[in-house]
């Protein structure tokens, strides 16, 4: 998931603190499970792993952590039972109007079509991102004060262009400099907003709830962190479209928005490297919890303690997130007491659900520790993600360097100004963000579809508990 993926692992940090607080009493009567890895399965069926997870920090006192863990544990049994039930049939919902606070449908399920892709015979990419529509170049076609009407009249053409190019950069528009005007823009295109794929992670605060507008990694603590290319997606959920808007560019420079066409990345990649990673698949480690105190415990007690922490994280995290992770000690071979949450193996390539075009649908550029160690990074160890082959072996560094080179070759850097909007097809185009200085206010709204009617399962929609909690405590 995840993304500008910066905060989901904050939960893991909080869980570690809560677990440490609650450890002594429960552990004395704990029985060691018969296995040393556990699978977190919040959803069944197609649920395998999150793809958009990433990094973060949280500052919270011990008492606060214990309270959070207690609250989550009380709710976990009921939530887990609900998650195990078969999802009810979809219902038809009307277009949302007025105040959208608490009214957004959940993000739709990811559409996977990753089997039997012929790497040697990929179709050519005829058009690529971004297409630029500049209000200053439209002349008399765009009358002053009539931007919403112009967008509505051009809706079908704009959405067709989006499918061809993957992303459209709307420049020099005036009405989109404020949240209400931005909402008028996306409503003129009949885009239907939904929750972020990892809304409950607290990755983004909803700064304008009534307009379904999330902040886009503007926190000062993350200004010096480079956000690599990624789709805003998990294995379970993927927003169909996204619209990024600039309300205020970084006051002291930087913070440029980055995009890259996943179809072009695939086209430009060495086919041997591509064949190898497609065959081997990828697994993404989404967090590290260094439980080094376990090493000082006596034999026998240490094993029970290790299993206790695996169980605790399973019970606290699973009911709150759509994850399918294995909790594994020492997978990166750097620390036997490092507990890592690792996704199951998944394809780095997917076919676009509408066009069938194969695309690079993988967050390796953002999540690879090898690459992050060579970039500006301001997150703690708990937030350090990594990417492995499907069998948890190390992806050859030559392959990682090649993938990085191809991704960066295809990056388009966008120095957005106030009112600029980048509309993107989230299945085709990856995005990221450069480091910045000063104050910055970019925002994003995610969409499940274009046009009516909406077909959404409303009965298991995530709540705002974690989103609000983590954004209040995020440094």
Automatic annotation (TrEMBL):
<dbReference type="InterPro" id="IPR042098">
    <property type="entry name" value="TauD-like_sf"/>
</dbReference>
<dbReference type="InterPro" id="IPR003819">
    <property type="entry name" value="TauD/TfdA-like"/>
</dbReference>
<dbReference type="InterPro" id="IPR050411">
    <property type="entry name" value="AlphaKG_dependent_hydroxylases"/>
</dbReference>
<protein>
    <recommendedName>
        <fullName>TauD/TfdA-like domain-containing protein</fullName>
    </recommendedName>
</protein>
<feature type="domain" description="TauD/TfdA-like">
    <location>
        <begin position="148"/>
        <end position="443"/>
    </location>
</feature>
<keyword id="KW-0560">Oxidoreductase</keyword>
<dbReference type="Pfam" id="PF02668">
    <property type="entry name" value="TauD"/>
</dbReference>
């Amino acid at each position: 998931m995840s993304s500008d993926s910066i905060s989901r692992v904050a939960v893991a940090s909080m869980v570690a603190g809560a677990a440490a607080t609650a450890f002594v009493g429960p552990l004395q009567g704990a029985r060691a499970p018969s296995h040393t890895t556990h699978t977190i399965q919040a959803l069944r069926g197609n649920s395998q792993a999150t793809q958009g997870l990433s990094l973060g920090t949280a500052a919270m006192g011990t008492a606060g952590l214990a309270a959070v863990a207690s609250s989550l544990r009380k709710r976990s049994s009921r939530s887990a039972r609900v998650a195990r039930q078969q999802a009810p049939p979809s219902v038809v919902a009307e277009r949302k109007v007025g105040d959208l606070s608490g009214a957004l449908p959940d993000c739709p399920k990811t559409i996977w079509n990753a089997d039997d892709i012929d790497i040697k015979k990929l179709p050519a990419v005829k058009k690529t991102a971004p297409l630029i529509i500049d209000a200053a170049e439209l002349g008399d076609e765009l009358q002053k004060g009539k931007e919403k009407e112009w967008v509505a009249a051009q809706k079908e053409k704009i959405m067709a262009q989006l499918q061809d190019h993957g992303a459209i950069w709307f420049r020099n528009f005036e009405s989109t400099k404020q949240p209400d005007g931005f909402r008028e823009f996306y409503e003129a295109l009949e885009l239907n907003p939904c929750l972020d794929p990892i809304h409950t992670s607290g990755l983004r605060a909803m700064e304008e709830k009534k307009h379904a507008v999330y902040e886009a990694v503007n926190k000062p603590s993350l200004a010096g962190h480079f956000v690599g290319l990624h789709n805003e997606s998990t294995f379970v959920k993927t927003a169909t479209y996204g619209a990024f808007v600039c309300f205020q560019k970084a006051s002291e420079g930087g913070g440029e928005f980055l995009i890259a066409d996943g179809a072009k990345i695939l086209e430009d990649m060495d086919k041997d490297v591509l064949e190898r990673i497609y065959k081997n698949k990828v697994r993404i480690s989404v967090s590290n919890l260094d439980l080094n105190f376990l090493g000082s415990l006596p034999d026998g007690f240490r094993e029970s303690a290790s299993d206790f922490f695996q169980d605790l994280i399973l019970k606290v995290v699973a009911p709150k997130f759509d994850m399918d992770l294995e909790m594994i000690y020492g997978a990166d071979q750097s620390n036997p007491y490092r507990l890592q949450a690792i996704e199951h193996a998944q394809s780095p390539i997917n076919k676009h659900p509408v066009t069938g075009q194969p695309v690079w649908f993988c967050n390796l550029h953002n999540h690879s520790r090898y690459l992050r160690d060579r970039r500006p990074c301001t997150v703690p160890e708990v937030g350090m993600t990594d990417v492995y082959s499907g069998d948890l072996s190390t992806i050859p560094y030559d392959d990682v360097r090649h993938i990085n080179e191809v991704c960066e070759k295809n990056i388009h850097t966008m120095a957005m100004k106030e009112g600029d909007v980048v509309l993107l097809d989230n299945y085709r185009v990856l995005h990221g963000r450069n480091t910045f200085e000063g104050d910055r206010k970019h925002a994003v709204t995610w969409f499940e579809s274009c046009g009516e009617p909406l077909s959404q399962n409303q009965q298991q929609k995530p709540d705002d508990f974690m989103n609000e909690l983590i954004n209040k405590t995020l440094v």
